[in-house]
Amino acid sequence: MLAADPQTTPSGAAILRFLRVTLHVGFAVLLLVAILRLHLGDGALGDGAADGGAPVGAQRYVWSALAVALAVAYVAGTVLEKRYAAGRSGFNPHPYAVLWLTLVTALWAVLLAGSSDFSWLAFPLFFLHLHVLPRRIALLTITVMTAAVIASQWLASGLPAPTLPMVLGPLLGAGFAVVTGLAYRALFLEGEAQRLAADELRRTRAELASTQHEAGVVAERERLAREIHDTLAQGLSSILLVARAAEKSLAAGDPATAAERLALVQQTASGNLAEARSFVRGLTSPRLQESSLAESLQRLCGETETLAAARGDALRCRFELVGHPAELPPQYSVTLRRAAQASLANVRQHAKASTAVVTLAFLGDEVTLDVYDDGTGFSPEAAGSGVAGRADGSGFGLRSLADRVGELDGSLEVESAPGEGTVVAIRLRLTGDALSGPGEQP
């Protein structure tokens, strides 16, 4: 029972397939020739008739029936193996290979005792023994089978002693079969090793693809988290605060102020909706599509003052431009605007500052953004432990900002102390691989 050809190189698979087909065809031809010689009267049967046993004619049919049984056993084993290897059967015949080989060899031995013409079937059987059995055991069984062939031909000849051709022929045939069988086994083992390597490669590729998919999912989740924090969350927070301020104005009997604040709620909600639609489509900020980065930051400062005033806070926000503005890649402009948004939102909500300054500077091969406020300040060391965000979903700003800047190989520094205000400083280089590489499209 030869295993199906393993996945190997095209030439190696062709050689293995040729050897398999040759072996099966050779076995069938030799068995057919032996049966024909048996019925044509040339086969040397045992002398059972001379001993008063069954007539020679009846013996021929007995041996023919045994030959058919041998053919059926041989074909059944090869077909079961082929179907299992092709995946058309769930029955695995490999554990029964030795039992099958024993049955085939035993049937051949009985036939050999009846006619020496079945001796030539030993040569294809040699290949099966080399393939199925361990090498030492196979060589031992081949030696015994070769001796049986020599003895069968000697007894059939009626000579007092075996001649040199009777001995030399089977020995040379056995030697050739052993060499060819070992070569086949070497090819088979090499193919099996390649199959295992290919399976391992496919498994590794599948694991890599799964890992890359998971990494992509995590990266996309983080991107959406940044966008939601820097656009929707900030906008909704502003809407909530201004709506509360409008409610207070209505309660105080000041409908004009309440109307102004409700108009601001509508304006903020409209901008927020545009931002949401933009990052869902994977585009840049609509504010940057309408104007340059400097103009967008100037307008952001004005919006910050308006939102602060709606809450009743006297916050002055000023924008300064240093150097000659250069054309920035979209991912640079988006990162700097989002950084200014997040920083000014923190100033407006937490700093209790009276002044904030946003400075955009083009300094040779760098672009920098500094956001300063004179508010209450905080301890960056203490805040560092909370950059992963709070349970309620807030506190995500520093981490989001650090991730954005890090993706562009930039630097982020936060300088602050309680009672001394805060400075958020971002540096992005305008030369090198950062400008040529594909950037995130928020």
Could you give the topology of this structure?
Elements: H1 10-40, H2 56-85, H3 97-114, H4 122-132, H5 135-157, H6 164-251, H7 255-280, H8 286-290, H9 293-310, E1 316-322, H10 330-351, E2 355-363, E3 366-373, H11 380-384, H12 397-407, E4 411-416, E5 422-429, H13 433-436
Parallel strand pairs: 1-2
Antiparallel strand pairs: 2-3, 3-5, 4-5
Helix pairs in contact: 1-2, 1-4, 1-6, 2-3, 3-4, 4-5, 4-6, 5-6, 6-7, 6-10, 6-12, 9-10, 10-12
Indicate the CATH class of the largest domain: Alpha Beta
Global mean pLDDT: 79
Q: Structural class, from secondary structure content?
A: alpha+beta
Strand content: 5-15%
Percent in helix = 55-70%
Rg, alpha carbons = 44 Å
Write out the strand line-up for the largest beta sheet, numbering strands in chain order.
1-2-3-5-4
| Stretches with pLDDT under 50, minimum 5 residues | 4-9, 47-55, 385-395, 434-442
Architecture of the largest domain, according to CATH?
Answer: 2-Layer Sandwich
Please indicate the count of domains. 2
Number of strands: 5
CATH structural fold name of the largest domain: Heat Shock Protein 90
What is the number of helical segments per DSSP (H or I, 4+ residues)?
13
Within CATH, the superfamily of the largest domain carries the name Histidine kinase-like ATPase, C-terminal domain
Give the CA-CA distance, first to last residue.
Answer: 62 Å
Shape: rod-shaped
Order of helices and strands: HHHHHHHHHEHEEHHEEH
Major sheet: 5 strands, mixed
